[in-house]
Design brief:
The chain is of the alpha/beta class and about 300 residues long. The protein has one domain (about 10-295): Alpha-Beta Barrel (TIM Barrel). Helix content is about 40%, strand content about 15%. The chain has 13 helices and eight strands. The chain has helices at about 15-20, 25-40, 60-70, 85-90, 105-110, 115-120, 125-130, 155-170, 185-195, 215-220, 250-260, 270-285, 290-295, and strands at about 10, 45-50, 75-80, 95-100, 135-140, 170-175, 205, 230. It has an eight-stranded parallel beta sheet. Strand 3, helix 4 (about 85-90) and strand 4 (about 95-100) form a beta-alpha-beta unit. Helix 2 (about 25-40) crosses helix 3 and helix 2 (about 25-40) packs antiparallel against helix 12. The longest helix is centred in the last third of the chain and has 15 residues, at about 270-285. The chain starts with 8 loop residues before the first strand and ends in a 5-residue tail after the last helix.
Length: about 300
């Protein structure tokens, strides 16, 4: 019998990881989205990214958005790839930073122009700043189940990178299937190895639904006791390495899965679905979420 967790923490990444890969929407739309996500019961929301607006123009208004929010009971996090970003996030009172590297050397070079080890070295000043200001840091590892340049990734590579981020001071590692090629067996193999060395409380999963496997992969992770899942409302965010493919797994679909398994999550599915319809209307599209489409548009 699978040992499912009794409760799952959902980290909502739609407002950052999702919108970063969509066409730009207004700061007002982002503020409305984050407030609606909070109203739906989400307690962990990635609210923005403090990165160069030249490279990621969609996130240029992150400080404006976060400053406009008044959500004391929500853990708002932001992507802070360097000390400048960390300082800017701290200036708007962000209490959790996110840093990212990859399990693929080729992806790391093409994405952030350095090796994996160099990327981790770059984070040392971010970690020191975070520690001095009592800010938690979450580590993301991209391409844990496959890379657009290298193909399959050795699970031991994922273990090595995850361990380095934990040693650096990250409290949790989010394992990202960036191109969505993972399958349940591969997920089980990877997590079985990682759980021999890392406590399950320090691991989260972040699946893209490029090949329609995200929910199956989440089920496999849940069955091994993983209790933190990243997801994006309405399935926001394309996959830049697979033209026309969907990106992040939809939060609504994850909530429906958890409901079916009797796992607590604290989220109101109807309100969540409404938030998804509203932001996708602002984007001029419809939700990717199968559950939202089945529930229908309550924003009409």
């Amino acid at each position: 019998m699978a040992a499912f967790p009794t409760e799952v923490k959902i980290v909502e990444v739609g407002a950052r990881d999702g919108l970063q890969n969509e066409k730009s929407v207004t700061a007002s739309d982002k503020i409305s989205l984050i407030n609606a996500l909070s109203d739906a019961g989400l307690k962990n929301i990635e609210a923005g990214a403090f990165v160069s607006p030249k490279w990621v123009p969609q996130m240029a208004d992150s400080a404006e958005v976060i400053t406009a929010l008044n959500l004391p009971h929500v853990n708002l996090s932001a992507l802070t790839p360097n000390l400048k970003g960390a300082q800017a996030a701290h200036a708007v009172d962000i209490k959790e930073f996110a840093i990212f590297t990859a399990a693929s050397e080729s992806f790391c070079q093409k994405n952030i122009n350095c090796s994996i080890d160099e990327s981790i070295e770059r984070f040392s000043d971010v970690m020191a700043f975070a520690k001095a200001n009592n800010i938690r840091v979450r580590g993301y590892v991209s391409c844990v189940l496959g890379c657009p340049y290298e193909g399959e990734i050795d699970p031991h590579k994922v273990l090595s990178v995850s361990q380095k981020l934990l040693d650096l001071g990250c409290y949790e590692i989010s394992l990202g299937d960036t191109i969505g090629v993972g399958t349940a067996n591969k997920v089980t193999q990877l997590l079985t190895l990682l759980l021999e060395h890392i406590d399950k409380s320090k691991l989260a999963v972040h699946f893209h639904d490029t090949y329609g496997q995200a929910l199956t992969n989440i089920y496999a992770a849940l069955s091994l006791g993983i209790a933190t899942v990243d997801a994006a409302v309405a399935g926001l965010g394309g996959c830049p390495y697979a033209k026309g493919a969907s990106g992040n797994v939809a939060t609504e679909d994850v909530v429906y899965l958890l409901n079916g398994l009797g796992i607590e999550h604290g989220i109101d599915l109807q309100r969540l679905s409404s938030a998804g319809w509203k932001i996708t209307q602002a984007l001029g599209k419809t939700p990717v979420s199968k559950v939202s489409i089945a529930l229908g548009n309550t924003q009409k």
